[in-house]
Amino acid sequence: AETQLIEKEKFATLGRISGGIAHEIRNPLNAIKTSAYYLLNARSPSPAKHEEHLQRIDRQVTVIDSAVTALSDLARLPEPNATAVSIPDIVEAILRDKQLPRSIEVRKDFPTDLPGAWVDEKQLPIVLKNLIRNARDAMPDGGVLELAAQVDDQQVQVLVTDTGVGMTAEVVERLCEPFFSTKARGMGLGMAITMAILQKNHGTMQVDSTVGQGTRFTLSLPIGGDDR
Ligand code: ADP
């Protein structure tokens, strides 16, 4: 597997974002239009049919609403307020919060003298949550999720490794593109938000992935001192 640095150039261009929004919104709009057409034109819709179409409209409006909300969250990401943040504490909080299936074995490897990372304490958890969620999704039949951290070259490195499905080079290339997803119900904004947060917090991300074997994300974050 080849290690690739996710560079700014690979991150959202306006055209790609627009294409993504158009795609994400057109499908639900079409469904709404079809149902509205039915309700307006059906000669004598049964109450059940009537109800079904109203429900569909309501559901599809919710889909559009969550796409727009996620996108405006991305656009209005607040300026980070950096403090020394404990990576193991964040990881513990996420694992407590988010039950992973039993088929996924979690391994943790954090040195006791790990310094804090100098990042926004509200934003970094979003990054780690997204990486852990994707690792879980990549291992539908179970596997090992390894969460580790170390100091390397004046940075705190955080490693999130799964033994899941892995990614092709094409998927790696488009990983952080807003609305890019290979999942049936994926919105494709998790990694775009992750990358936006990392950039604002002076962090970088590398990915190393092999189809059928798994994926490792390596974050490099500024060091925040010894007070954890
Ligand atoms: P979503 O999870 O909604 O699809 P993301 O932006 O979080 O959106 O991820 C984009 C795509 O990147 C996913 O659909 C998947 O194809 C790929 N991906 C991300 N993380 C992993 C991983 N750990 N293993 C395999 N594929 C991944």
UniProtKB/TrEMBL annotation:
UniProt entry keywords in alphabetical sequence: ATP-binding, Coiled coil, Kinase, Nucleotide-binding, Phosphoprotein, Transferase, Two-component regulatory system
Residues spanning the signal sequence: none
KW NADP (keyword) present: no
GO biological process: regulation of DNA-templated transcription
EC annotation from Swiss-Prot or TrEMBL: 2.7.13.3
Biological role stated in the UniProt entry: Putative oxygen sensor; modulates the activity of FixJ, a transcriptional activator of nitrogen fixation fixK gene. FixL probably acts as a kinase that phosphorylates FixJ.
Protein known as: Sensor protein FixL
Organism the protein comes from: Stieleria bergensis
Gene: fixL_4
Parent-record interval covered: 154 to 381 of 381
